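Methods, example record. To illustrate the input and output format used throughout this study, we show the complete record for Rod shape-determining protein MreD. The sequence lines were provided to the predictor; the line carrying structure tokens was produced by it.
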Amino acid sequence: MQNNDVLINIVRFIVLVFLQALVLNNINFLGYINPYLYLLFILLYPLDGNKTLLIFLSFLLGLSIDIFEDSGGVHAAACAFIAYARPVVLKYSFGVSYEYNTIKIKKADPLERLVYIAAMVFMHHFIMFFLEIFSFNHMLLLLKSTLFSGIFTTIVILCTLILFNRKTQ
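The corresponding predicted structure is encoded as:
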């Protein structure tokens, strides 16, 4: 990673934590749908970046959200897991392009980008809501929360990528 990438990631980390904590956590659509835009940090982390550092930063990102939400570590665990699973999802989503390190997530094929974002978001949400609910007796609530929050988060992330991608071109 270059110095410019480090600065961009530091600013992205701080802005996303405060945006999530101060604005997005107050959105509670239909009682259980909440967007988690802070996942954008993990999704956009440079592909050539240190993977161990990504897992550590993802844990810190989730821990920061847990501190603001007083949620007991569910965000930290879910973020650390998707950071760990990210190379597998990238390889599944982008195939050979990922192996040769030739992809840019903001400029990738829309279907590949959608598969990547949706897979990461739904894994994060399933783990987070499972740890939050922690009961197989409420499996329907777990699946409903994962599905609807996952769809909403994916739409918000895609809209954010489109919005900021147009400004940089």
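Annotations derived from this record:
The mean pLDDT is 86.
DSSP finds seven helices and no strands in the chain.
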